[in-house]
Amino acid sequence: MRMRKKWWALPELKESPIFRYRPMENKGKWHEDFGNDNPIYLELGSGMGSFINYLKNTFKNKNFVGIDMEEGCLVYAKRMLEEEDASNVRLVLADIRNVDEYFQENEVEEIYINFPNPWPKNKQHKRRLTYPDQLKMYKKVLKSDGTIRLKTDDQGLYESSLKYFESEGFEIIFKTDDLAVDEFQDDFISEYENKWRSQDVKIKAILVRNVK
């Protein structure tokens, strides 16, 4: 379900020092933007920011870029992130399906995809964030041996994603259709995930390595 349009959200985002409205201008220049050479980690679909907020507070020696298509969500992520030092995080309002327009080859260390829309109907599969067309783009921007982490509550997306990753030459390092709490290294259990766990819905997870 799409959020109701918040006309004030984009102007507020544009006032923030951590927001990047034209990410294509940062292509190949993200380290310059952050002012350091720390590795860059990318979250696709940052929503209201709980996961990327955990990352930026926990790993100060890493840089994080969160992308989302909904300014109504991203503005709340911005507010949360700015409650503490946000020098190692940037937010982007953009179409995730064009990620290779925002990052150059080998610019990203790791990609996080947390509970994306599973697009369950066959005619919708091309919209999945793990669909082969997307994975081809991720391979470009990821470093050699860079990684992708996927978490989902949807069995169909989990099973299909395993096939997608294999078809595009990613090495599967870890997979499970029943993820235990604290089993995924450096993980964060969001309110969304807790909701599904409380209903005895199994959480699925995949970790893959980019092989070039």
UniProtKB/TrEMBL annotation:
GO cellular component: tRNA methyltransferase complex
Catalyzed chemical reaction(s): guanosine(46) in tRNA + S-adenosyl-L-methionine = N(7)-methylguanosine(46) in tRNA + S-adenosyl-L-homocysteine
KW Hydrolase (keyword) present: no
Statement: the UniProt record of this protein carries the keyword Signal: no
Sorted UniProt keywords: Methyltransferase, S-adenosyl-L-methionine, Transferase, tRNA processing
Pathway involvement of the protein, from the record: tRNA modification; N(7)-methylguanine-tRNA biosynthesis
Protein name: tRNA (guanine-N(7)-)-methyltransferase
Gene name for this UniProt entry: trmB
